[in-house]
Structures are given as structure tokens and as C-alpha cells.
Amino acid sequence: MIEPAAQGLMMETAQAATMSAQTNYYLYIVIFVFIISVIVLGYCIRYRKKRKMKLKLL
After folding, report:
1. How far is CA 51 from CA 38, 45, 48, 57, 58, in A?
2. How far is CA 47 from each of CA 9, 22, 24, 39, rounded to the nearest angstrom?
3. Once rounded to an integer, what is the mean pLDDT over residues 23-40?
4. How far apart are CA 23 and CA 4, in angstroms?
5. The CA-based dihedral angle spanning residues 22, 38, 44, 56, taken in that order and rounded to the nearest 10 degrees
6. Between residues 34 and 25, which one has the greater pLDDT?
7. pTM of full prediction above 0.70
């Protein structure tokens, strides 16, 4: 009687572990994409400012 319960508990913990690993994976992807988008946005803004300055000089 104890063995199936223990197996079920182990299965549940394993599933929970894999689920948490998946959520962490997605979380890392989201953070990574967010950081890249922020860097790209900052770069674009700086590039635009530089272009505007060049246009003013012209």
C-alpha cells in the first residue's frame, strides 16, 4: 500500500520539478528578450539623436 503512494508522490514531485524548470526557462527567455529589446531601443534612440544632430549640422 505504501509503495504506490510513494511512487505517486515521486511522480508528482518530478512533474513539479519539470514544470518549474520549464517556467524558469520561459522566464529566462522573456527576460533575455526584454533586455535585448531595451538595448535595441536605446541604441535606436541614440542613433536617431545622432542623425538629428547631423541633419541640424547640414
Report:
1. 20, 10, 5, 10, 10
2. 56, 37, 34, 12
3. 91
4. 28
5. 170
6. 34
7. no
